[in-house]
Amino acid sequence: MSQSPSSSSSSSPQLSPPLEIDESLTLIPGLPNDVATLIISFVPYSHHGRLKSTCKSWRLFLSSKTLITLRHIHHRRKLSHLLCIFPQDPSLVSPYLFDPNNLAWSALRPMPCSPYVYGLCNFTSISVGPYLYVIGGSLFDTRSFPMDRPSPSSSAFRFDFRTSSWERLAPMLSPRGSFACAALPNSGQILVAGGGSRHSLFAAAGSRMNSVERYDIVKDEWVALDGLPSFRAGCVGFFVKNGEEEREFWVMGGYGEARTISGVFPVDEYYRDAVVMELKNGNGGGNWREVGDMWDDGERTRLGKIVVIEDDEDRGRPGVYMLDGNDILRYDMASNRWCEESHVPRKAPSDSSFGFVVLDGELHVISLLKAVRSAETRRLRHHKKPGTLYIQIYNPKRKSWRSLITKPPFQDPLDFNTAVICTIRL
């Protein structure tokens, strides 16, 4: 699973101001189209696919730019909070949206593919307004040698929900996978830091880097910023408000140089600290400062999965949470320590893991309940059922848990160690 915080950004580029409504189409008989469009726009996004078959006018309207633009302009407080799950390489397997409130699934189009590369993983997905970004990652390139080692990718793609289509964006200046990534709220900018690429079998092999870049959504260009103090991959990034207009970009955890055991087996050296860059007037260029170790020797070896709730109850500072096994911890910035927050009510099976994501201010812990195979499917060893997703939801303000169960549309079981999950509001 991606190690970047899975919280949907509230920032967005300029939406198309004019709402183009085809007056020759009748959406609801007896009502003006401007009233009808407003009524239909209240329908949750997850139901749009099924409503398109109602009639031609609905199909055209539900497939137009007008609908998403209308929802973001007039219904910002009532937008659907959706999970976006990438089970595998998005150019080969369709990503899916899941609406927890309506238990509804909808598939997105696969990302454009190249005949020379395959097996994309360790990429980052992040949402900004009505757009979904897929940035970087590690992949196999048939034009490189040796072919059994992944190469970092610099590619960036964006899915526009107004047109239901992918577009290729300007590539990053430096290819990278397993990196820190966050969208700067209300600025139209995305920051990436660190990363690299690593071998699929020998975890400590591969590259690390310290470069930092800022992406301007409107200009579609990447700009290099001051690099991290040291090489760092597998890290997470988020923003902390510092005053009225200034923010800090935090990069936490990850691994740096590898060491070997007995001179043979490579082992990652994991960081116990964080580094912080001050962004002045929404632009980078400030110096990095180092935050000390967040835990002592013997307490733990590495960070678990991290998610961030933007502008949590602590005076505008984000709530940073970690899933460590079956425990949920919260980061206290004042003491630079992780504090116990709660425990997952139902533990994951010993041979599986949790997915961890923030949705609408709540922590979602996702596990897979494996289906019991029949005698026939046991004979067909290659046939694997996707099982059932069990989602345990924790509300940090109420200190309470609830749960839901859903049947996913995937063809194969979901592996939370490699799947990428993010959120989006539509």
TrEMBL record:
InterPro entries per UniProt: F-box-like_dom_sf (IPR036047), F-box_dom (IPR001810), Kelch-typ_b-propeller (IPR015915), Kelch_1 (IPR006652)
Annotated F-box domain residues: 29-65
UniProt cross-references to Gene3D superfamilies, sorted A to Z: Kelch-type beta propeller
Classification via PANTHER family: F-BOX/KELCH-REPEAT PROTEIN OR23, F-BOX_KELCH-REPEAT PROTEIN OR23
Protein name per Swiss-Prot or TrEMBL: F-box/kelch-repeat protein OR23
Organism: Ziziphus jujuba (Chinese jujube)
